[in-house]
């Protein structure tokens, strides 16, 4: 993702969750942490209010005119004067424990209150602890529109500035594929958890593979047993749920890609010989004839001077001297080159022979050679090595050691892959008979005047999504991946000093699946890069491009990615918590008054109202002082009783340490004067 991307902070709709459930608030990580802390505190306050309501209801339900023991009255006083659930639980536990010698089943009589209080305590403790999980939606964020939003395409070079742009574009394209390769290696293969692995809406686009697919060409072209080709299939990739293009159902597009790979025979299609340049320099070559190359015409001298060849390989690597091969950077012992084939398009790639059955599919031929040696034989169909030789290892002095080595069976081997693409409208109009295009090659979508995509779509938003997917797919196929990946195959990482361990029998399968996986990640990366624009100094190439296209502006406003330095919250969950909390607070403040009003109005439960009043701490204190003859009290039916003005008394002026009481001495309010 480009470094010139910014994140939208505020409320937006995540259409994957719907218009209501998808309402989302995005904040920076710092502000999001503050919101979570406030939410945790608020939930704890709600817990205190709900416990007060529960204690009021429990007190009223338990109130009776029947004579009860001291345990009951202390329980009622505890419920009336609750401070918090944990404090009430502790007090009830102490009460039940202390009354064991005096009242039968004292613990059982308190058990219901204790269990209910424990449930309340645990419930709100969990709610406070996991409040962030209740409302956060992870790190999904919406990109703000970048001034450089838009697709950067390879320019047509006709002047010096376009030449510079073309060079910069090639470098950008190579870097993009390198980043995709690193992502696949680090995040998908090694399962790292770095921030670079939390970038796209989906960490990985799902795909399936099978190694028992039929040969996609004429049977005598494929190597190996029948039905042993590799078939890879993405299934339907959703523009919103998988690629992160935010929009309602009417704005979605689905895309599917399939690829079939198999090593193919070189018998009857290869020619070996010797050729020379006009300067007299000669070389040995191996030429492949699977169809004439339209981009690099093989009849040209620098392309081999051999008419109608698809690819020409020279023996230049065999002439490298040890001075070069021993350098720290090493030399590419593997030579890998890809050539794309497009049926019926003489302007690009090569034109495949009829044996390839290339109509409606793109073909990539991957040619590979290895000038090094393996320490053991390789039965891989693509990079087979059984030519036994001897490697002489010299030591200090005159000692030497001869070891067996294995060379590749052919100067050049070929792995062929086909690719097909399909676009679908997940919500087609009722008058459409098909919601998907047939499986086609990319050049069908580019050059077919019938335009198979547009009839399926019914708004500009779907059209721009389909165009950008096509733009990204064009740069994420097997041919561009192999052509720009360094090194192009994983086997190259096993070779050191021209020596490699033997390859597994399914090395060609591993290579093809790796290219496919890199291509899918590059598709994700390109979709985001269109929204952000090219990075750094290249941003100016697309600056202002979206200003000309409202649908492109919409696209750039609706790209979802992941960022670990931002947090997103579910607005509905936040609203429900705060509304519920406000409602609980209002109920807790006015519940006593409302219940008391109806008790007076209907003349029912008046005793319950009186008991609630008398069991309060200050009323219990008043009654105790009155019984001790301390103070002249008024307001016995109010929330807070008071004494006469300026009246003072000192309780517990004398006490028994084993049975303290409040008996004290009243202080006269007005003393008589002797004068």
From TrEMBL:
Membrane-spanning segments: 110-130, 571-598
Record keywords: Membrane, Transmembrane, Transmembrane helix
Annotated protein name in UniProt: Uncharacterized protein
């Amino acid at each position: 993702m480009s470094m010139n991307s910014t994140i939208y902070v505020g409320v937006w709709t995540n259409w994957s969750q719907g218009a209501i459930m998808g309402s989302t608030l995005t904040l920076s990580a710092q502000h999001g942490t503050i919101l979570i802390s406030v939410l945790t505190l608020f939930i704890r306050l709600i817990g205190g209010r709900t416990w007060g309501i529960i204690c009021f209801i429990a007190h009223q339900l338990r109130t009776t005119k029947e004579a009860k023991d001291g345990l009951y009255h202390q329980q009622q006083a505890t419920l009336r004067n609750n401070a918090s659930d944990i404090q009430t639980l502790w007090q009830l536990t102490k009460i039940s424990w202390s009354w064991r010698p005096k009242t039968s089943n004292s613990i059982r009589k308190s058990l219901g209150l204790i269990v209910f209080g424990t449930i309340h305590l645990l419930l709100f403790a969990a709610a406070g602890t996991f409040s962030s999980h209740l409302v956060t939606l992870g790190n999904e964020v919406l990109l703000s529109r970048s001034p450089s939003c838009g697709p950067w395409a390879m320019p047509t070079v006709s002047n010096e500035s376009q030449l510079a742009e073309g060079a910069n574009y090639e470098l950008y394209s190579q870097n993009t594929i390198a980043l995709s390769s690193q992502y696949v290696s680090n995040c998908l293969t090694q399962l790292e958890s770095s921030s670079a692995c939390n970038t796209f809406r989906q960490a990985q686009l799902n795909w399936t593979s099978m190694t028992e697919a039929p040969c996609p060409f004429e049977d005598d072209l494929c190597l190996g047993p029948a039905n042993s080709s590799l078939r890879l299939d993405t299934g339907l990739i959703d523009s919103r749920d998988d690629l992160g293009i935010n929009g309602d159902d009417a704005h979605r597009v689905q895309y599917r890609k399939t690829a079939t790979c198999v090593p193919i025979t070189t018998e009857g299609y290869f020619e070996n010989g010797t050729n020379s340049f006009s300067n007299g320099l000669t070389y040995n070559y191996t030429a492949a004839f699977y169809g004439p190359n339209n981009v690099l015409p093989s009849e040209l001298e620098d392309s081999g001077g051999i008419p109608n060849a698809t690819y020409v390989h020279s023996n230049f690597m065999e002439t490298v001297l040890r001075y070069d091969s021993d350098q720290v950077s090493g030399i590419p012992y593997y030579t890998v080159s890809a050539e794309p084939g497009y049926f019926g398009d003489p302007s690009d790639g090569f034109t495949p022979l009829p044996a390839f059955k290339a109509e409606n599919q793109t073909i990539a031929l991957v040619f590979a050679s290895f000038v090094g040696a393996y320490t053991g034989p390789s039965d891989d169909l693509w990079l087979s090595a059984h030519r036994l030789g001897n490697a002489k290892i010299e030591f200090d002095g005159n000692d030497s050691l001869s070891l067996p080595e294995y060379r590749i069976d052919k100067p050049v081997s070929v792995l062929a892959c086909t690719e097909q693409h399909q676009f679908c409208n997940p919500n087609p109009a009722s008058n459409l008979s098909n919601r998907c295009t047939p499986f086609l090659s990319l050049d069908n979508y580019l050059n077919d005047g019938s335009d198979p995509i547009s009839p399926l779509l019914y708004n500009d938003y779907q059209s721009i999504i389909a165009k950008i997917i096509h733009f990204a797919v064009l740069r994420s196929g097997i041919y561009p991946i192999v052509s720009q990946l360094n090194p192009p195959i994983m086997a190259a990482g096993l070779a050191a000093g021209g020596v490699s361990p033997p390859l597994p029998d399914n090395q060609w399968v591993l290579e093809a699946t790796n290219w496919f996986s890199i291509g899918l990640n590059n598709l994700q990366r390109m979709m985001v890069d269109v929204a952000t624009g090219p990075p750094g100094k290249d941003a100016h190439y697309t600056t202002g491009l979206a200003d000309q296209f409202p649908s492109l502006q919409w696209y750039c406003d609706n790209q979802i990615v992941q960022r670990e330095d931002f947090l997103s919250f579910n607005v509905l969950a936040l609203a429900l918590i705060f509304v519920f909390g406000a409602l609980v607070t209002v109920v807790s403040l006015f519940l006593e008054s409302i219940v008391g009003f109806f008790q007076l109005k209907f003349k029912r439960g008046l005793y319950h109202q009186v008991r609630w009043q008398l069991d309060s701490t200050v009323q219990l204190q008043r009654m105790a002082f009155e019984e001790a003859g301390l103070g002249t009290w008024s307001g016995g039916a109010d929330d807070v009783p008071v004494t006469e003005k300026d009246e003072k008394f000192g309780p517990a002026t004398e006490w028994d340490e084993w049975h303290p009481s409040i008996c004290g001495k009243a202080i006269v309010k007005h003393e008589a004067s002797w004068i």
